[in-house]
């Protein structure tokens, strides 16, 4: 097993599908569910270790190769990041650096490479569609031409109450979804994670995994939710700082525009910066500045 990168904290998702002793079995099960295959040989799975591209400080993504395909999985428990396509483009470039021999890149004959696929599993509280596709070309400043690159990320809502068909095909993903739902059930109570772990074990949800790694899972969840809270606090602080700066500069119109852009981006997550700017009769630079301020 690869040496753990201590600069990152792993999520339960990463541990279950990448680090744990059952990870290759779990990955193969999820791969089969996505592709309607029935592979059983865990040796088909080759893990690809990439750091510092999709997330900083907290690792919530995995990548691996199976049967001539390289897959990138990420999990979101907060709002889906609309820049996932750009991040995945950078990510898969790093992956190919590992998968393709350096000398082979300069051959005159065509070098075959694993086919890339990108998935984000949404497991957050906010309402999201059952399934959606993000496209890199949506971020292009100008219309895509014949020679432009395209990259698509399929976002699948795996909340247990949404009952996506993938959960019916992949038992381990279904149990993981049920586990997260149980954690949220007790979120307002003291020792919430301990209660959730105990009840899941009693109900046979990830029972073997939780028996082996209950305390580790508890620590990972504490770190995971602390990270999410930290991101939210930073966004709120950025908003407050922007408001205070606007007041000091006496730019009331700037504050109003700031609020309008923030609301427009939240209500229309699929809109490009250009579409938001056109809608509000402001500049693209102003939209980009506000989105950067709020981390969206």
Chain-wise SSE layout:
Layout: E1 9-10, H1 12-19, H2 23-35, E2 46-48, E3 58-59, E4 61-66, E5 69-76, H3 84-99, E6 115-122, E7 131-135, E8 152-157, H4 165-169, H5 171-185, H6 192-203, H7 207-248, H8 252-267, H9 273-280, H10 284-294
Parallel strand pairs: 1-3, 5-6, 6-8
Antiparallel strand pairs: 2-4, 4-5, 7-8
Protein name: Transposase (putative) YhgA-like domain-containing protein
Q: How does this structure look, described?
A:
- The protein is of the alpha/beta class and 296 residues long.
- It has two domains: 9-241, no CATH class; 251-296.
- The chain has helices at 12-19, 23-35, 84-99, 165-169, 171-185, 192-203, 207-248, 252-267, 273-280, 284-294; strands spanning 9-10, 46-48, 58-59, 61-66, 69-76, 115-122, 131-135, 152-157.
- The chain has a six-stranded mixed sheet, with helices on both faces.
- α8 (252-267) packs across α10 (284-294).
- The longest helix is centred in the C-terminal third of the chain and has 42 residues, at 207-248.
- It comes from Sporofaciens musculi.
Order of helices and strands, N to C?
A: EHHEEEEHEEEHHHHHHH
Query: In whole angstroms, how far apart are the ends?
Result: 35 Å
Number of strands: 8
Which strand order does the major sheet show? 2-4-5-6-8-7
How would a crystallographer describe the biggest sheet? 6 strands, mixed
Helix content: 40-55%
**Would you identify the regions where 5 or more consecutive residues have pLDDT less than 50?**
1-6
Rg from Cα: 21 Å
Beta-strand percentage range: 5-15%
* The number of domains: 2
Average pLDDT for all residues? 85
User: Structural class, judged by helices and strands?
Assistant: alpha/beta
Bulk shape = globular
**Count of discrete alpha- or pi-helical segments spanning 4 or more residues:** 10
Protein name: Transposase (putative) YhgA-like domain-containing protein
Organism: Sporofaciens musculi
